[in-house]
Amino acid sequence: MSGCPAAQGPVVHDPSSLPADDNVNAYTFCVELAGTQWFLQKGKMIAYYGTVEFDGVGHGRLDRLVRTSFHSPLHASDWVVAGGHGKMLLADRAFDVNSYDLDDGNLTIRSGNLLAFQPSLSLKQSIVPGFLTLIGTGKFVAASNGPVVFMEPPIRVDPQALVGWADCPSPCHHYDHGYLTGVLGGLRALTGVGGASGEEHQFEFVGAGTVLLQSTETLMPERAVGEVARGAGVPGGGPCGPEGGPGAGSRPSGQLGGLQRRFGL
Amino acid sequence: MLAVELDGDAVRAKSGSMVAYDGRMTFKKLTGGGEGLRGMVTRRLTGEQLSVMEVKGHGTCWFADRATEINLVRLTGDRLHVESGNLLVTEAGLRTGTTFTGLRGASQGGGLFTTTVEGHGQAAIMSEGPAVALRVSDRHPLTVDPGAYVAHQGNVRQSFQSGVTFRTFLGEGGGEAFQIRFEGEGLVYVQPSERTTFAGEV
């Protein structure tokens, strides 16, 4: 039996041949821990050498980390801290993974795409619902459906292809105004007769920065980022206005997720 | 996709995994994994079903299954442990069998038994995303998430370890409550994806 072109067998890795804080292949990332810590999403470790401990965020000696790295602790229960010595492999549902370095910068990313980050970065909930913002200096690992493409604004992107953006001052919605207000286009959009092109709505970025796109329009499943404190003027914070007081199901901010969410129900 | 060139010899492949061939081929269903009556009874008892066909002929045959990655493993007299669902093709010189795995199998949802492949030749195993082969030695034991484990070969002892603490029941577990620890000398294959397991929830 002779196999494909790569019939010489797989590359075998051991602790010395695994890269430090770099990709093993397009789908697997290796983190080197030397007494240091990394934050990762629950259940994304696939294997490790050495002694690595996994602790839920938000109790005991790790409580301080919540204060310094998770400025909104509402979603901290989805994250674990890996600490110890050794090399650890991370992967996410066979999606492409890539690491990015932030140097005193900021980057906003779709919540489902972020995999792991160094505690020197701080994770905040973006005011754009479903997005998280990383601020500071350090390395983080993100997954994407297909390789990531970096674009310079000004650019308009498809909502499904957007992974995140860095240093961009103005992410905003853009509707193809001329088409939607035209008689024919308006009729089509209202009735569905004749079909729409599917590209009437985009996100628009202007200013200096970088926009990250994935090379498919299949979204990665969203992860709950936690509720935001309810109140008038908070995007995603529920109804506001005269009758929109604090909702019945809201929790005082500062608490971790509810019991159901902790058990993944 | 795996291309196999045959020149009158035979390979065993998962039933229905042929996608194309040229030349002349015959496909014969092997009952009970082609392991004889004893193997058939064992497989029926353990629930470790293995549906194989024997492919014989001259030409090239292509195999694939649900667009999963295919990894080639060369065996030289040692033994490969793999879940039956992840085994795609074995060369004629390899024997398959069934062994007990214990808690490890139960934790990854694969049942208490697993398939072994022994002999000399190559086997093709499937994984979701390209598998990473990790060497286990006495100096460097390896710990693996049960959901990402695909196969292992060589003289490796495995033990099951649990990180379940009272915090797990408070819902603040580390997310890696169950792990398999490999010690000894050999190779372990992990995939960059995790099957949905009981352990993945805590």
UniProtKB/TrEMBL annotation, chain A:
Transmembrane segments: none annotated. The lineage of its organism: Bacteria, Bacillati, Actinomycetota, Actinomycetes, Kitasatosporales. Residues 233-248 have a biased composition (Gly residues). Residues 249-265 have a biased composition (Low complexity). It comes from the Bacteria. It comes from Streptomyces sulfonofaciens. InterPro entries: AIM24, AIM24_sf, Trp_RNA-bd_attenuator-like_dom. Residues 231-265 are annotated as: Disordered. This is Ser or Arg-related nuclear matrix protein.
From TrEMBL, chain B:
It comes from the Bacteria. It holds the Pfam family AIM24. InterPro entries: AIM24, AIM24_sf, Trp_RNA-bd_attenuator-like_dom. This is AIM24 family protein.
